[in-house]
């Protein structure tokens, strides 16, 4: 029998948020970002004002995205076109182990940096 692995459910990473969905905003995920799961940490590309997975360091053409500013609330497919997505952008507590980071965020120091950036947006990881 084949083993199945369940993907993260939408908002499973969320511990608490501000009343009335004040923690949520609809953002545009940039075309080419691929299929992203709920809990993915995002950064905003300065030039386009669109969002991608937040890398560890500045990437050509994605300047600004290295700063983590939001967390994807629901899965989205932005493989070949921009996609609207609900994201947690402020005043929330999240489950640290359930967050999904870019592959370049590959050690505790880099992960800590991303969590500090989210904390500046009043998103606290526990």
How would you describe the overall organization of this protein?
With about 130 residues, the chain is mainly β. The chain has a single domain (about 15-125), classed as Head decoration protein D (Virus Head Decoration Protein, Chain: A). The protein has one helix and ten strands. It has one helix spanning about 110-120, and strands at about 15, 25-30, 35, 40-45, 50-55, 70, 75-80, 85-90, 90-95, 125. Strands 2-8-6-4-5 form a five-stranded antiparallel beta sheet, covered by helices on one side. A three-stranded mixed beta sheet has the order 1-9-10. The protein has a two-stranded antiparallel ribbon with strand order 3-7. The radius of gyration is 14 Å and the shape is globular. The relative contact order is 0.25. The model has no long low-confidence stretch (mean pLDDT about 95).
| Model regions low in confidence, pLDDT < 50 over at least 5 residues | none
**If helices are DSSP runs of H or I spanning 4 or more residues, what is the number of helices?**
1
What proportion strand? 25-35%
| Outline | globular
CATH topology description: Virus Head Decoration Protein, Chain: A
CATH class assignment: Mainly Beta
């Amino acid at each position: 029998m084949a083993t199945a692995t369940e993907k993260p459910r939408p908002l499973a990473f969320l511990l608490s948020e501000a009343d009335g969905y004040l923690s949520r905003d609809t953002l545009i995920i940039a075309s080419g970002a691929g299929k992203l799961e709920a809990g993915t940490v995002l950064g905003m590309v300065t030039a386009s004002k669109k969002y991608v997975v937040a890398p560890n360091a500045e990437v050509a053409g994605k300047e600004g995205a290295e700063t983590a500013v939001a967390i994807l609330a629901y899965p989205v497919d932005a493989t070949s076109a921009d996609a609207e997505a609900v994201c947690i952008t402020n005043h929330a507590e999240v489950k640290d182990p359930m967050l999904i980071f870019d592959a370049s965020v590959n050690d505790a120091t880099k992960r800590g940096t991303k969590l500090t950036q989210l904390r500046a947006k009043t998103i606290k990881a526990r």
